[in-house]
Design goal:
Helix content: 25-40%
Number of domains: 1
Number of helices: 3
Strand content: 5-15%
Radius of gyration: 21 Å
Shape: elongated
Distance between the termini: 54 Å
Number of strands: 3
Length: about 80
């Protein structure tokens, strides 16, 4: 009985340890919905303020110690945004 519990716990732990994500962010792209929405703002002035990254120059982020999250072209996250 004790062995079954240990095997079950080991299996569950391995599922969590060996399951990860492999994510590459997608490139910005044009969509019909976005174009339509942006056209409603014609003539309106917008302003994008300064922003900075908490870790400047960072190009990868670890995801559950499995794989990394990167930008499509390998640039830093602040340049990507």
């Amino acid at each position: 009985m004790k062995n079954k519990v240990l095997v079950s716990l080991g299996f569950i732990a391995s599922v969590f340890l060996f399951t990860g994500c492999g994510i590459k962010t997608s490139e910005y792209s044009v969509s019909a919905d976005n174009v339509s929405e942006l056209r409603t703002y014609e003539g309106v002035k917008i302003n994008v303020g300064e922003f900075s990254a908490s870790n400047p120059g960072e190009k990868t982020i670890m995801c559950r110690l499995a794989e990394t999250i990167t930008t499509p072209k390998g640039e830093s996250f602040e340049k990507y945004i």
